[in-house]
Amino acid sequence: MDGSVAIVGAGIGGLTLALSLHARGVPVTVFERAEELREVGAAVALSANGLRPMDELGLLGELEAVATQPTELIHRGWRTHDRVTAFPVGLDGSYRRRFGAPYLGIHRAEFQRILSGACPPGMIRLNSDVVSADSDGTLTLASGETVTASVVVGADGVHSRLRGLVDPAATPVYTGTSGFRGIVPVSSLPTLPDPGAIQFWMGPDAHLLHYAIGPDGGEVNFLAVLEGPDAWAAGPGPASAAPGTLAEAFSGWAPAVREMVEAVPQSAHWPLYTLPPLTRWSAGRVVLLGDAAHTMLPHHGQGANQSIEDAVVLADLLAESDDHASALALYERIRRSRTRQVQRSSLVTSDLLHLPDGPEAVARDEKLGGLDPWLAWIHGLDARAQTRPATVTG
């Protein structure tokens, strides 16, 4: 590709794209509004579809050194510690042999540190708030500075400013569910079965997801998701909830669940959004990536992984062509179907995880026994393989 790429947002997707472009010799600059890189959120689960690109960038070893490989993926009901399903995903090596990369739980700050540390000096511009963009590739910063690039990538998250240029009518939709987060030392969870596993506890109007993080698996990251509030009026970000909201929601649940949510002070809660399919992903020289293009619920742990897939596909196509319009159109065609499938599946899963006891919950538990194909279609995709048969004229 002739010319430079400007990326707005130094999150996981933006930094992965920057490193992928740099590795292919494309000049790139990342504009980040924050004065320092500080990821919001506790941790992230990285599945094989997100980690194979990290291996190609030479970063997998660093990630493994500060992460935990889960032992199993386990689903449990809400009343007892009994297992509903269990699938090996870690230490026995079967997952890695099957999908070509491990499954890791890692603190978001560690992941961002490794990604940003791999960027050459000057690639990331902090304290650079992009307030507007034009379809000709011109960015205007809050300082008044203007920058022009051959391609501008909006990797600026669920509340993307650049999305308004690409699809002005597209607005994230609050799903009527909210999430609480926490990190708990394993030593504070004496009744927790299988602390090294990724686990879902499913029950009426709520669920709890957790997995170990850190090099020794000594901490457990959890996301507790509740139905409500019916409307979110507190602004786009997290907000305080009434004291005791989280503990009350899990009253009567299994001992390990109550132990976990009560082990740390109640966090703020986050509104959980989804994004209806966009009419298009690009306008002129501006294109969207990650949550800016396809915000999805976290119930498959695929937000970060889908952003990574976007990044490596877009990097390949831009590096191979001087015709940015053809490259961006092909990027959208490749990624649109995939991300919509994962979005829809995450939405359906939200309802299934919150079923009350009864026939529907029994049917759900029976279907979870066939989870293996689900793992394969999400975790088994090699995103870069999708660009290899494609040709982009330029």
TrEMBL record:
Domain FAD-binding: 4-344
InterPro entries for this protein: FAD-bd, FAD-dep_Monooxygenase_BioMet, FAD/NAD-bd_sf
Gene Ontology MF terms in the entry: FAD binding; monooxygenase activity
Coiled-coil segments: none
Pfam families: FAD_binding_3 (PF01494)
Classification via PANTHER family: MONOOXYGENASE, PUTATIVE (AFU_ORTHOLOGUE AFUA_6G14510)-RELATED
Protein name from the UniProt record: Salicylate hydroxylase
Species this chain originates from: Pseudonocardia ammonioxydans
Source taxonomy: Bacteria, Bacillati, Actinomycetota, Actinomycetes, Pseudonocardiales
